[in-house]
Design goal:
The chain contains eleven helices and nine strands. With 274 residues, the chain is α+β, with helices and mostly antiparallel strands. α5 packs across α8. The longest helix has 25 residues. The chain is globular. It starts with a helix and ends in an 8-residue tail after the last helix.
Amino acid sequence: MSRGASVVIGTCLLVASAAMSPALPQSGYLVRSDHNYIEAAAFADNSPAARRQAVALDEQQAQLPFGMETEPVAGEVAAKWRAVEADIDRERQVLERCRAYDTCPVVAQRLLDIVAEGADRSGRARVGLINRAVDLAITATSDLAQWGLADRWSPPFETLQTLRGDCEDYAIVKYVALLQAGLSRNDVKIVILRTIMPKEDHAVVAARVDGQWLILDNRRLALVRDIDMVGCIPRFMLDEDGTRRFVLPNRAAQWSGGGRSSPSNLVPPAWSSA
């Protein structure tokens, strides 16, 4: 396992598991905080082929936020994201017309103004300026207070019309703004975390800059690397390819001493459905 992935699981996932999951068996089959044990288990087969396979797995997982595997998932989260994606596609056409002609709806111009904040910058500076512009444009407001609903996902134009929203509304605007600013579709994701204090789902954006995934969180202006996140569990990843669920790396099964501490034992029950 790469150092980045081990840090994330060691600080974000396992801290959360201790607080949320049923007690794990104290059998000693998997001592997750013992890095020497993890490395020894992962490379028990020291053949060149096994080492090449392990390196390839590390590189593959490093391409995703938190260095973790994902799998397609259906359910409520996926349905909400599909609905928002349809709205985003329609709004993208409006933005294209805005760029082609002088006239532009006010709400579309607000989004283009946010994109323009990072126009003369690149890398981390561009991401940071767009993140800041969105955070300052929107007033944090619960869905219950704004819409009378427990949970409602708004497309960017709706959020920039009311200038109010909760975490996923911030995240959706940032996601679209970063793509409009020129970031690759492979380098921008919406991630839904499960936080420990308070125990709730929280949406953020993950943007990859110079090989590092940075977390854009409306609760803080500073950009934080994914490997530095603590007290949370990555649950879902949303992008143009749909909705995927984070799962523990397959290699975790190799650490388990014959499956006695399988990855499913390490994942809180909240991960079982969308």
